Amino acid sequence: MKHTDHDDPNAAVQKAVSALARTVEKLARDLDALRGGMRQAASKGTVKELADVVTHLSETVQQVAAAAAKKPGSEDEAVRSWLRLAEDEAAVQGVLSELVPWMQTVYLRYGDARVTLPPCWLWHPEVVEELLWLMDAWTAAFYGPDASLRLVGDWHDRQRPGVMRRVGLYADACDLTNHLEHAERLAAEVPLLDDLDPFVTWWASDRDNTGPAPSRDQIKAGRRGGQTTLSAVPQDGGY
């Protein structure tokens, strides 16, 4: 089965599946006819073997049709995420054993990527997340079942520059020494995590208004620059 970059691979697969289904249906009809005509000339075992073949073909068609119906990026297709990776050393080691060689042989071949990648990239989960999906997108574009020049072009033109730019923003001017003072601290927490109820009521029944007034404790806890622990609010000098 061949298709060009302008063809829809899913449509081509669906056509092939439909043709296969018609063939199996014809075989089933022929088998029914043979059951009567061959009953005298063939053994019951021979007829049963033919029936098993047709049944197996029917099941195969159903499986292929189900696989062809899945759309790339759908919920049925797993996409890896560093942020949601299993808390398992083997899983983490497996991802890094793929990612690091790919970065060496592909990503860092680009000068702008070498400039923006911080030496402390492993301390930044958001950076690893970006690099992981970029590697998987590269693999799909060059070697996946739907690999094409169009996907490769999209990777070069849009995906790689986008990741490179965001990596530079996430860790702008960051260095290994910056992580000394934050070592062993807890990860960022969502602000107001224990105060969701009034916001549920507001957005569910009164969203035309501006929302509940913050309490003194909320203001104190959320003041920029006044934190004693890490939070999701940037500590950049207060307000």
UniProtKB/TrEMBL annotation:
Residues 207-239 are annotated as: Disordered. It comes from the Bacteria. This is DUF4913 domain-containing protein. It comes from Kribbella sindirgiensis. The lineage of its organism: Bacteria, Bacillati, Actinomycetota, Actinomycetes, Propionibacteriales.
